[in-house]
Every structure is written in structure tokens, then in C-alpha cells.
Amino acid sequence: xxxxxxxxxSFDPVTLGHMDVIQRAAGLFDELHxxxxxxxxxxxxxxxxxxxxxxxxxxxEAGSPGTIIVASWSVGLLVDYATDVGASVLVKGIRSQVDVxxxxxxxxxxxxxxxxxxxxMLPDPAHAHVSSSLVRQVSSLGGDVTPYVPxxxxxxxxxx
Length: 160
Known about the structure:
Order of helices and strands: EHEHEHEHEHH
Number of strands: 5
Radius of gyration: 15 Å
Number of helices: 6
């Protein structure tokens, strides 16, 4: 039986912390879906199509292991996508106890709704302080985001 997992996120933009979690999760599963989701509670910097493109480019340049599928999802429950693709696991990157407190109730509900388990992965400590919102702020003020994002994202933000 194929082990299929989904790594959901807004990825607005994708960071090196995201890439670390994606690459390590890809080594644990036969098929990994990296899913760009619409979060109505956030105002996005990049349209979903651009986030998908930047993720695909970043994954390609990183030479990530295994089968990775990048997709987007904006309507319905995340567990609906997971069950549609045969995934039994969601992989969530967490940076702090704040993330754990936010993600835990959703993990319990997802297991209850669809039997989909959630695995929490810590990013490499070198990237644990980086968030997409921090990258957006640094970029908007003209700062160098190169240490925090994959090269395709840095190139995109520098030309914007």
C-alpha cells in the first residue's frame, strides 16, 4: 500500500523552513502532495497560481527526493482533498508552542472527520524563526530575503 501524505500551507511565499519540512517529509512517504491552500483569515501577497509556480521551481531546484505533487485547494475541507488523493496523513511544520496550540484542535477534528492523522515536524533550527509574514515584511521594506527563501522566491521578490 502506498504511503501518501499532504503538506498543506499558504506558502505566501515558501520559505527555507517550508522546504526543509517538505524535503524531509518526501523521504518518509511514497507520494507527497504539497498543497497551497487559501486562508480566508490572511491577506495574500501572491496569487495562488504564483505560489504554486514558485513551489514547483523551488522543489525542482532543491532536487527533493521522491514523488512530490504541487497542487492548490480553495474550496472545501482539507481532509476532503486528502481522502480524494488517498492520503492518510497531513504533515504540518511547527515552529513553536504557539503553532502547536493552533494546530492541535485542527488535527483532532481532521482525525475525527476523516480518519486522517496529523504529524508535526519541526524545521531545522536555522530556519525555525522564519515565517512567510516575516519574509513579506522584510521584502516590502526593501530588505534582503535571500537567507530565508529558496532562490526562485528571492529572484521573484527582487524583481517585484
